[in-house]
Design a protein that fits this description.
Blueprint lengths: L4 H6 L3 H9 L5 H4 L4 H5 L6 H12 L12
Length: about 70
């Protein structure tokens, strides 16, 4: 699942796809290490992009990280 790489990235809409590409995120494995907050901190990523990314990940049966646990 985590090795779908660029093919997976190409399934996203342009805005989140370009933001992830600029951030150096190319695979699902790299992406699921990030939280919603991490994604929102990336230039060009807003709530709509995060929702699109989450929906795409759900299709692969994975989710974003829950973030740091205090």
């Amino acid at each position: 699942t985590q090795s779908h790489g660029l093919y997976w990235l190409e399934t996203l809409q342009d805005a989140p796809k370009h933001a992830l590409y600029r951030a150096g995120i190319r695979t699902i494995g790299e992406l699921v290490k990030l939280s919603r907050e991490d994604l929102l901190a990336l230039p060009g990523v807003g709530a709509k992009s995060v929702r699109a990314i989450e929906q795409s990940l759900a299709g692969y049966g994975v989710t974003l990280s829950e973030g740091a646990v205090a």
